[in-house]
Amino acid sequence: MRFIGSKVNLLDNIQEVIEENVKDDAHVFMDLFSGTGIVGENFKKDYQVLSNDSLYFSYILLKAKIENNSIPNFSELKKIGIKEPLHYLENEEFEISHEFFLTHNYSPYMGCERMYFTVENASRIDFIRLTLNRWKNESLINELEFAYLLAILIEAVPFISNISGTYGAYLKHWDKRALGKLKLRTLDIGNNHYANKTYNEDANSLIEKVYGDILYIDPPYNGRQYISNYHLLETIALYDYPEIYGKTGLRPYVESKSLYCQKKEVGNAFNHLIEKANFRHILVSYSSEGLLLEEEIESILKSHGLPETYRIYKMPYRKYKSKHKQEASELHEYIFYIQKDIALTNSVKSNKKIEVGKHKTNSYIKSPLNYVGGKHKLLNQIVPLFPDKIDTFVDLFSGGFNVGINVNANKIIATDINTYVVEVLDTMKKTSVEEVIAHIERRIEEYGLSKSNEEGFKAFRNYYNKTKKPLDLYTLICYSFNYQFRFNNNQEYNNPFGRERSQFSPALKKKLVLFIEALHEKNVQFVCSEFEHFNFSQLDQNDLVYCDPPYLITTGSYNDGNRGFKDWNRLQEIKLLDILDHLNSKGVYFALSNVLSHKGLENELLLEWSKKYNIHHLQHSYSNSSHNTTRGESQEVLITNYTNYTK
Motif Adenine-specific methylase 2 located where? Predict the structure, then answer.
């Protein structure tokens, strides 16, 4: 949805600032003034995300898309016969009652003069809101399910609103789209396998209670209060029957006025925010026409951060509908960066009390494939737990090859059941960087691939499904939702278009080049095979088998058996554990990534088996309290049969 100050056009710039300055292994990204959540949603693929906004309707959008890692099941609704909640909410019949707040106050019903919605659409919105409240009160939907359905409604409302852009005023005649019927569309939910968290608090109060690695700050720039422009979305979200006033039916918002919109308060508020920020890396988006001057922001950042790390990036832009072209050309969007002298959040724990030395470098190569369950965020905890010297390293469930590419071994064998992924990696291994980049850029030009050309994307997807050329798959992924790959039961690529988010950006190109260059320097053999068919007899006591199988007690597209590839079940788990026992009897090293518990479930089979070996607890996700774990988090572990770790 359109939102004042949206950073959709600056996502690549933000990414590049992070790439240039964040050289350590950051895990936790916080978007403190999230709005509709476009920034947090974009970086959800790379980090555990904390998001916050003081507006409740924004908070609902965040909770639905950031905190949810999948589309909810609505199991309780199904028990009462409602299998498709959206269809029910769109089509169920109702009668207008005195409870229908929008109908009575924002549509031409019973003499009301306001024309924000037609009576048909206003009453449908009222029916949906009352129904969602009832379902929630009757425990038919939980908090995340409520947020998901309400977020869908909030995102649908602007398409049938009789406004020019914001809700500061309604049109005096009916716009064509306002006469259309309210349509509810499912949300695209990305899964990063982290316990993401959303907040609905004042930023300056919240900053004293949270911590992480990267803090992104995008405060209001001027005296314009967002609440007045989006008062109707706030009322729909809260549905609290406010005492409205004025011609446009504003809700009271004196207490909601942001300090960042007040000239006398903004300096102190920003200074407090930076001073209290318990984050190592801080990025600030601002504008040259904002209340704070560039020099003021620089001074505050340097007073609380490391002055030598200060950076400013200026992006010129044309002021929307400006009549003063010269003045508009001098406007800039800023991104400020500073580093604070604060440690990162990551740590390694071992129940055997084995001292783990720091790995030689904090810089790890990242796979260009956004593979579900990828271990890039855990590399700084996993790699130091590998033996000092490895002859042959077997990456038995290699996936996107995040682990194997970062291991020092005389020989690396990477196996995976997904033929298409193996072919992409093998092609990159056998092809020069120049040829790979040239191929990608040819396809981009040929199909007109961009963040907005969905038709070009679909045409290219159809072409790939007919030809199955490996580098075309990678190119396709670059323009797909969340940069992920997904196949149906016919093994056809079916991931949707990543509108306004995904593209082969300079930052992505840089990552790809680094990965291929590292790949060419290693002695790697890629093999498409099921794990039990690997020839383990070729291994001896100087070798290491690393296993990152699908997790038995979690669900994902990689282990549900519904994507044209073999599923993962208890029998598969037993086979793998038997193989590892056999390797141990031969004196061959192994390391197994897995989870002992997840969202209240325990892998009892693994818990019992692991007692024979060394269990190292990894910090997979982070709470915002003084404790390391919270209810519902995954207990991520690395299980090894050796103790001679990298020093």
Answer: 548-551
